[in-house]
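User: For my dataset I need records formatted as: sequence, then structure tokens, nothing else. Please produce one.
Assistant:
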Amino acid sequence: MFDLIVIGGGPAGYIAAERAGHAGLKTLLIEKRNLGGVCLNEGCIPSKALLNAAKIYDYAMHGRDYGVFVDAVRLDHKKVIERKAKVVETLVSGIKAKMKKNKVTILQTEATILERNSEGFVVEAASEKYIGKHLLVATGSIPVVPGIPGLKKSLENGFTLTNREILDLIEVPKKLTIIGGGVIGLEMAYYYNCAGSQVTVIEMLDHIAGPTDQEISRVLKKSLEKKGIVFELEAKVTAIEEATISYEKQGKVNQLVADKVLLSIGRRASTDGVGLENIGVETNRGAIPTDEVGRTNISGVYAAGDVNGKSMLAHTAYREAEVCINHILGKKDRMRYSAIPAVIYTYPEVATVGETEESAKEKGIDIKTIKLPMVYSGRYVAENEKGEGLIKVILDQKYNRIVGVHMIGSYVSEMIYGAGLMIETELRVEDIKELVFPHPTVCEVIREALFEI
């Protein structure tokens, strides 16, 4: 008998188990693959290991701009993959150690919810039955696989890859076609471009980077195009056959020949085979609706992370998991989504939080937009010879406070949390102007922007 059974060992699952165990709840964590889930094993962390290598390569290639001359630069993809594996192994070991420290029982197998009885929720795993007073579903997400003719066969024979396989690819393809210009597609486009691939990105929308501020996405596209990445926008893939990708653009069918294809058009909640229907948990298009404390429609059952379909980001999953556990423990807490940062780890980086100009206007917010080039930061000028960095601050004029910040440039992934904090705490512009920022830092542009009002 457990106080809590957690199904899924990704960011939501392992954080929930850790917090619950630390609070003294007898906790069972069941994960069918590897602890850490997609984020740690097939997404966030391994991709950053690759991207860091690409950035180092990028710096070296342009060293002469800064007076540093490197005679020969080569990115050894095999060594990068080997280091990626070591990073993942180190972090997975760290999670296991945390589970042990907090007395969490771990099962590495599939789990199925069977029923609810007078004692709690009955879950079957490895032919054994376990009962939990509370249940947290954190089964994550899986790649969306559209009905493109030839795609299924292409995935089976390895010509088309998902985010899982692309991160273990031993050989760098001479020609790589990426279907989807979202975060994963762009990050892999940047890495494999640096590694030597001729990269083409096919995107259905008229812009890249999905819901990212459109001016920022245009700057990013221009920067990636300068590196040699080709974008086919407003284009729809119609077929994949052997080494050929067919796509329709402006009413005309075109074809591309590639060595590999990356399918990266989005992800959907992974709820198939979990057994939710056995206890009456409602789903909406596969995702599990939850309230502000992570509860489903069934008392005692919670859902956190990608599986609820709200914000498919690891850091959102962390916080959702904490809210769920706090509610189980009787602590007052609730999930808020207005200031969740998002980052694209290309070079330059993109970081955003809060409302865009478009979303703010849709909500009827009376906004003022302040734009500054990153060259307003002395450090940015000192460290970026040809940088085209930009910051946009979105102000709610009625309350004179920040509701959105969008940046492209160096270090922005490490700066965006501060902007999120300003939005979350509803700081007034006057309050932020009184804060002292370290000098010289790139983050000073946030404060500088407010003095442009």
